[in-house]
Structure formats: structure tokens, C-alpha cells
Amino acid sequence: MKNPYENPLIQLFQKIVELRHSSNRINSVLRKDVEKYTKEEASFFSGSSLIISDWTGNTDNGWELNFHTGVSIKTEKENYAKEVDKIVSRECCLAFAQSFEALETFLKDCVYQNFLIHISPIEREEIQGGDNLFKLVKKACGENFIKSSKTNNKNLHFKQFWSTVSESRHAIVHSSCRIKIKKIKKSADHFATFEYLFDYEKLEDETLLIKLDYKQLDKVQKHLSEFAYQVYKILSKEESLVNKFK
Fold it and tell me: What domain of life does the UniProt record list for this protein's source (predicted)?
């Protein structure tokens, strides 16, 4: 019998490698650009302005009339390295967020398959993400999930890991990488996990700005992949299915 969890896992791995590959290229090109344009003899300036038109305003015989919003941004040579750091961090954070969403897709596929055969049929589209998804994964995997969470080579408690990456992904997507400390400091161990996986900058009002460079992105993506593999491994063992990766 073909292992039904194999293709979803491979699809997750492919997505993560694709995102890592693209992020690596962005990082490499921009770092070389910084090296080129911050040399003593080099000159650099970049600027952008937002120009719009009024959909319900006057036109020039049918042609739109554009106007300056007054909003502009510029980057000069002395600020270019810092600007690139921000761009790389933003792109790496978005790559992490997409990796996490791919992990959620994999876990939903696993839960759907497992419940369909062994517990009670559910509709795939009804499976929610976040903590609800984690609870369903835990139920599907049984006691081995709890044992593996307590004892593993990373010394990472699965729920603690899930809570940290889930809250971080939510902050990146919905709050421009800003996260309240209380969200990821539910315990000292939670915050230690966050500091292990992410870089950050302290802001005002008990808020942190999540930051990632390419090296840190590679680390967190590896952990997402390894967590997915644990779920695959446990379900395969529980159902006496062939583990392709052994």
C-alpha cells in the first residue's frame, strides 16, 4: 500500500526548497549590490514617489490626469546597506510565512487522511489552522506524538514550537513583523524558542520587530521541515506504512 502521507510531505519539502532558493538569490544579488555601490569611488541614489489618478475626477479628453500624493522615499549611498538589510529581512520573513502556510497545508492533508480512515470523516475545507489544527494532529498521532514531544534531539516541546512559529507567522503577515512580547513570552521556554529561531529588534510598547537574514531563514525552514517529518514518521509507524526516508 502506498503511503498516503508521502506526496503531501514531498510537496511541502519542494515548496520550502523553492522559497529558500529564491531567498538565497535575493540575498546574494543584493549583498553584491551593496558591495558594489558602497565603495569609496561609487555613487548611489534611489528614489520613489507615489503617483495616482482620481477615478471620478476630470480627464484630459479621456486620458487620466495623475498627481503626486506627496509621499516619497529615497535611499542614499550611506544608508544603502541598512536598506538592503531591511529588504532581505522582509523577504526572508515572507518566505518563512509561506513556508509555515505550506506546513499547515501538509498537516491538514494528514489530519484529513487519518480521520477519514481511522476516526470519523471530516470535510477537508472545515479543518481550521492554528491551535485547532495542532490538537487534531496530536489526536491523529496518538501517544507517540506526546512521547516524541517530551524527548527529542532538539529538546523542543512540539506545542511550544508550534505556538512560537504560529504567532510569529501571524505577526509577519498581519502586523508588518511586529509582535507583542506577551504573544511569544507565554513562558521562559517559549521566549527561548523564539530567540533561538528568530532575530528581533525591541520597539516601544512591549513590541518586538521580527527580523530574519538568509542564514536564520534556512534554520527556521529546516525546523519546520523536521517537525513535518516527525508527524509523517509517527503516522507511518502507527499505520504500519512504509517510511520512504528510512
Answer: Bacteria
Let me know if residue 229 belongs to a domain. Answer: yes
The answer to the question of residue 236 being in a domain is yes
Residue closest to 181 by CA, chosen among 208, 212, 200: 208
Q: Is residue 171 part of a domain?
A: yes
The answer to whether residues 16 and 102 touch, using CB atoms and an 8 Å cutoff, is yes
**pLDDT single digits (tens) 142-155:** 999 999 999 999 99
For residue 182, which of 161, 163, 157 has the smallest C-alpha distance?
A: 163
In a domain, 200, yes or no: yes
In the structure grid, which three cell numbers stand for residue 27, read together?
540575498
Count CA atoms closer than 13 A to 27's CA, side-chain side: 20
Bridge partners, residue 68, by sequence? 51
DSSP symbol at 207: E
Instruction: Give the span between the Cα atoms of 121 and 113, in whole angstroms.
Output: 9
Number of domains in the chain: 1
80-118 helix and 6-37 helix, angle to the nearest 10 degrees? 180
What pTM was estimated for this model as a whole?
0.92
